[in-house]
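Next up, sample data:
>
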Amino acid sequence: MAAFLGLFRRDLRLALRQGGDAGLVLGFFVLAVMLFPFGVGPEPQLLERIAAGVVWVAALLAALLSLDRLFHGDFEDGGLDLLVLAPVPLEMAVLAKCAANWVATGLPLAVVSPILGLAVDLPADAIPIMLISLLIGTPGLSLVGSVAAALTLGARRQGVLLALLVLPLYIPPLVFGTAAVAGGGGAARPHLLILGAFSLAALALAPWASAAAVRLALE
């Protein structure tokens, strides 16, 4: 656990020290949501109908921007080799890196989402559900994305290949996250439970798959 926390703090410090990456993700999220009213028109009824989908799609694309840096820096400077040889299991190291990635990028997306929801005329009673859905769903995005990031290590067009691999896997959280916000009230509960199940399944499976892919990339 001490090694896990040490690696988590180290990755989080690096992410915050190199604030450009985290700022880029958050800035993209804000701009992507704010551009939609200019593209589809300012009609409140139309924006209210698509607001949940707009915020969730923008959050998925913003989360995607940070994934190529998840292992790339350690892969280039040999840090991944040290993690493989370290006494801490590689799966735990991957989990620590995913946790740091979520705190640096996914958590700010969820925190900012209520303000952006108001900007696209999301009903006031749906804003807390939007926040909860992103808090539940974004950890799963980081975990699933770590598998794709590990599989594309060393690839020439890593960013493009990463997007092709991970975007189809992001469809379930997009569907259920949007449905939870659009349903509202008691109708949101089943969708939030499924969203939570997605994140829990990713927590159980993704570190093992990512660690196997990292070992393969280093061979």
